[in-house]
Amino acid sequence: MRKQLLLCMIIGSAASPAVAQTYQNASQETMKNVEAYKSKEKLTKLLSETYHVAISETWPTNFPVPAYTSNVVSKSFSHSTKGKPSAGATLVTSDQPRTVFDFYNAACKRANWKVRVPSAKALAEFAKSGEMYMLTAEQGKQSIYLTCRKHRESNGTLVSISWTKTQ
């Protein structure tokens, strides 16, 4: 799933600070594959054929959390097409991280997800480079990992959501 999100973020390219951070953590093999494909079309084909991932700019209606719609600058969505069901979404909004996080925290709770949020102390440790909020949520055999952090380029928020279905 980490490779999927990396490649999706690169295609979306709206989240360049996050892309830069993820680049640092990616394997050399993954980065060689990504750098060999200079166009969005070629990269989309690589994702589909090699990593079995489909990309879209449209938020699917069956994604387990709603799309944040206020002041959205960009968004992208990916999902597995083979193997373990997984999906990911990224979006950038000019709204502030706390506002966006509160939206998702409330949405998960309304949908009866079991939500866990790190303590303020733990969040402060994670967010040394800027404002950041995160949560994990579980419901049945599904789990969500969500982060909302300051997006330096827009002075708004970068949202990253990973969803997986456990076996």
Key phrases:
7 strands; seven-stranded antiparallel beta sheet; alpha+beta; 167 residues
Commentary on this structure:
The chain is of the alpha+beta class. 37% of the residues lie in helices and 31% in strands. It is built from six helices and seven strands. A hairpin with a 2-residue loop joins strand 5 and strand 6.
What's the gist of this structure?
By secondary structure, the chain is α+β, with helices and mostly antiparallel strands. It has helices at 2-12, 16-25, 28-36, 40-50, 97-110, 120-126, and strands spanning 53-56, 72-80, 86-93, 114-116, 132-139, 142-151, 156-165.
Number of helices: 6
Shape: globular
Overall pLDDT confidence: 76
- Global structural class: alpha+beta
Low-confidence stretches: 1-25
* Strand and helix order: HHHHEEEHEHEEE
Helix content range of the residues, please?
25-40%
Taken as a percent bin, the fraction of beta residues is 25-35%
| Overall number of structural domains | 1
Please describe the biggest sheet, giving its number of strands, its sense, and whether it closes into a barrel.
7 strands, antiparallel
Give the distance, in angstroms, between the N- and C-terminal Cα atoms: 15 Å
Radius of gyration: 15 Å
